[in-house]
Amino acid sequence: MTFLDMLGAAERQNDSLLCIGLDPDPARFPGALQGDAHRIYDFCAAIVDEVADLAIAFKPQIAYFAAHRAEDQLERLVAHMRRAAPQVPVILDAKRGDIGSTAGQYALEAFERYGADAVTLSPFMGFDSVAPYLAYHGKGAFLLCRTSNPGGDDLQSQRLASVEGQPRLYEHIARLAQGPWNTNGQLGLVVGATYPAEIERVRALAPTLPLLIPGVGAQGGDAAATVRAGWRRDAPIVVNSSRAIIYASPGDDFAKAARRAALKARSLLNAARPLV
């Protein structure tokens, strides 16, 4: 199955638009796990087990593993996901962006070392920095387009005088992703939930692409507005929540609390999905 096949199957089987972001910070771990970077796998695997039937995707953030020399735990975690939730695709949140030869190594890391189904990328070095990922048949890539952070305005909302119609930079990225850059048919875009009007604009420019939408939960994005702006029956959205779910409780019931938070988030997203 291609990444988009997996995404569609997970949406149907788990009746979900919710992506579970895994950003493990040992300083925030509960009880006996607190401060112990050697327990990153244990913390994340316990949550995966509880929410395996609720997610459209899992999104481990590579920096939270690499900062603690826990890359081997990330490999184990992805392997555990395959066993516990084989129906749920894994999006490696890496935001890589480099020249072609180096990009080839990053692609190998994402898809062969970690076994991810998709990866997040920065497109600002151009298509040759994206192409090595698309050479992997059936693997997905989400390009940063209109991100959820306030500083995104510094570049992404600037108009391009050299391009016909002077589109904003994020609009130009959306058009490229919908068109000539999507060489393997598995390209998507990252658009922040904190900007629902921009989600709607990106959806208009990229009507068939999957959208990875962070910013719901701890960042305060409006879940219902996000779904209304981005969801289309034939164009999936992957709405990510990380801290609001994985840190739902500071106690030993953290995994059960994560399930309760995920159930609530999934229900909120589904309630905003049109019936037709």
Brief overview:
This protein has 276 residues and is α/β, with parallel strands linked by helices. It contains 12 helices and 8 strands.
Task: Walk me through what this model shows.
The chain is an alpha/beta fold and 276 residues long. Helix content is 42%, strand content 14%. It is built from 12 helices and 8 strands. Helix 2 links the parallel strand 1 and strand 2. Helix 2 (40-51) runs parallel beside helix 4, helix 2 (40-51) packs across helix 12 (254-272) and helix 9 packs parallel to helix 10. It is globular and about 60 Å long.
Count helical runs: 12
State the helical fraction: 40-55%
Which H/E pattern describes the elements? Answer: HEHEHHEHEHEHHEHEHEHH
Overall pLDDT level: 93
Main β sheet profile: 8 strands, parallel
Number of domains: 1
Q: Note poorly predicted spans.
A: none
Number of strands: 8
Main CATH class: Alpha Beta
Strand order of the largest sheet: 2-1-8-7-6-5-4-3
Q: What class, by secondary structure content?
A: alpha/beta
Taking all Cα atoms into account, the compactness measure Rg is: 18 Å
The CATH homology group name: Aldolase class I
Q: What global shape is seen?
A: globular
Strand content is 5-15%
Which architecture would the CATH scheme give at its second level?
Answer: Alpha-Beta Barrel
CATH topology: TIM Barrel
How far apart the termini lie comes to: 27 Å
